[in-house]
Amino acid sequence: MNAGRTFMVLQNGVARPSDIYMGLYHRDTRYVSLYELTIDGEAAVPVKSWKTTYSMHYVYESSRGMVARTISPLYDGVYDLIRGEEVELGMVIGMDFSDIFEVRDALGNNKKPRMRTIDISQGKRGVVASYIGMDGVKRALEIRSKPAPIIIDDKLKIKGRNRLSIRLLPTMGSSTLAIGVGGPYMEFLRIAPRIKSSNNAINSLYMNSLINIFTLLEAPPKSLFPLGGIPWFDCVFGRDSIITAMQALPLIPGIAETVIHRLSELIGRKYDTETEEEPGKIIHERREGEISGSILPFRKYYGTIDATPLYLVLVAKYAKQMGVFTIDSVRNSIEMAVQWLLNKLSNDKLGLLGYGKGALSNQGWKDSWDSVFDSDGELLGYPRYLVEVQGYTWEALHLINEVMPHLKLGEAADNVKSKLGLFWSQRLGYFSEAIDGEGRSADIYTSNPGHLLWSHAVSKGDAEKIANALMNEKSLFTEYGIKTLGFDQPRHDPNSYHNGSIWPHDNSIILRGLADYGLCSEFSRAAAALLNAYRALALPGLPELYSGSPPPRPMGNFPQSWSSGAVFMIIQGILGISVNDGGVTLKPCVPEWLDWIEVKNMRLLGSQFSVRIMRRGGDVEIIQGSPTRRLEIHIIS
């Protein structure tokens, strides 16, 4: 269960310290590690459990009848209601205030045993447990319950007959007003387009993905910023939020607006070697746990090579869709980001955008330490240049030049594009994943070059070569999606994080690129594979990643923002939607397995319109809805 910066992880309705990851989390800290219900003095084990939209429901059996329980997330809290008849109910609660990096056991050489002093006292409206961290910040948990809790040593116990009502309200620094999720959820549904199609998997995945993205929004409707994912990345991630915003852009542009403004506020202002901050650089990660504010550099960490060009791509696409005037308030940040990019390119001996070793060994989206290597499996040296990042950089400069022509970025954009040949591998007949400053190349089959389709950085001929490699069933393509690394490559492991697994967001980027180049047969197969994975995984949405050999096994975070946005990119590709020069262009790429799709209430260029695309005898028919104001719509069949 999650809502914004608060989430709860339970197993069968219980959290115990022995179940390492269980508990109540808020802003990168686990506040509660013990949360256990008893019925008539015995540990409660549910006979049935299910999830609705954002709440968890449990049913228990007692000797005297059934006990019903609903746990609902709040913005900055959790509400737990347990009801039965003629039963004695009890709850024991234990606090630990562990930093999320401690819970993950991810401190390495920084790991040190620590004793915490937790103060538990009676407050005005309930019992308050508080802890002052090594970063000097006070973190507190208020427990409001009926009946009232009893303090026993370092734990709380609540006992009642027939009914328990418990609110867990974590705070960090100042207190906040916990609010329910229902109102913001209905408001979010109001602004999201309604989508129906002849394909039940798309319909189901779209609704589940809407819910998952909603639960990851920081504080809707005030803030539509998409946090990374549950449980480890429930915080600001630059790259993830930008990709999610671009996936959702034609459908829910408010996400892009929030992301642009938030990342503009967090843009680098100074040079800091520890956090890798530089003026004009877009942030990678923003944490609020005590470890990140004292031992690790992740309170504000800038170790990413691709977030800055991706930010500029998002800014330009948003301006084209909503009007150039909409970016006026962030022009200073845009120009800072452009200057950072130009400085990096001009100071690099190859004229490319590369990175050295930092707190993260790799600083693209595949940021595992071992994700960039050559055909012998040997890691590349530094600096490292990722092929997809050069595509992002070309598109960033090209698109910003279109919306802010006074910056005169056309020549710089073409310069980057002209150097993509450095990545071409004659041995593979395909682009290498990366090159390094020593002239070595990661000439292995990976999904990375597929992103060049999305950034429109290659010719139609090269696009077809990329598509052929991606769709090769002996290497990268499976019935459940495109793999990060080919089957026959060194270091291949289908259960690894980046070396053979399948990532929905990665596939979605490739899918939009295939559609943009008119490679509709390949788009149809790849989209069908992603939907096959959704069916096989049997989850209410797509996880961060899943295993790259059948059957697919979920891995990583769930829900996760950019994996939830994958279906939006499938819909973008089907519509073939783009916005240019004050008009909307639709160039449909309708899969052979789809008879029709209807999208109602899209918001583009200050207007709202709907569209229905149907396949009839191999032809495509578009029924254009009535815009709320004059909107020029071009249809390319």
Describe this structure in words.
- The model has no long low-confidence stretch (mean pLDDT 94).
- It contains 15 helices and 33 strands.
- Helix 5 (253-265) packs across helix 6 and helix 6 (307-322) packs parallel to helix 8.
- The chain is an alpha+beta fold.
- Helix content is 27%, strand content 28%.
- The strands form 9 sheets. Strands 1, 2, 3, 4, 5, 6, 7, 8, 9, 10, 11, 12, 13 and 14 form a 14-stranded antiparallel β-sheet that branches. Strands 15-30-31-32 form a 4-stranded antiparallel β-sheet, with helices on one face. Strands 28-29-33 form a 3-stranded mixed β-sheet.
- The chain is globular.
Topology:
Elements lengths: L1 E2 L2 E4 L13 E4 L2 E11 L2 E2 L4 E5 L2 E8 L2 E10 L2 E23 H4 L15 E4 L4 E6 L5 E9 L3 E3 L2 E18 L9 H10 L2 E4 L2 H17 E3 L3 E4 L9 E2 H11 L4 H13 L19 E2 L20 H16 L8 H17 L36 E3 H17 L6 H9 L5 E2 L4 E2 L2 E3 L14 H4 L5 H11 L6 E2 L2 E2 L21 H13 L3 H18 L7 E2 L7 E2 L5 H4 L1 H10 L1 E4 L2 E4 L9 E9 L2 E10 L2 E6 L7 E4 L2
Parallel strand pairs: 29-33
Antiparallel strand pairs: 1-2, 2-3, 3-4, 4-5, 4-9, 6-7, 7-8, 8-9, 9-14, 10-11, 11-12, 12-14, 13-14, 15-30, 16-17, 18-19, 20-23, 21-22, 24-25, 26-27, 28-29, 30-31, 31-32
Helix pairs in contact: 4-5, 4-6, 5-6, 6-7, 6-8, 8-9, 12-13, 12-15
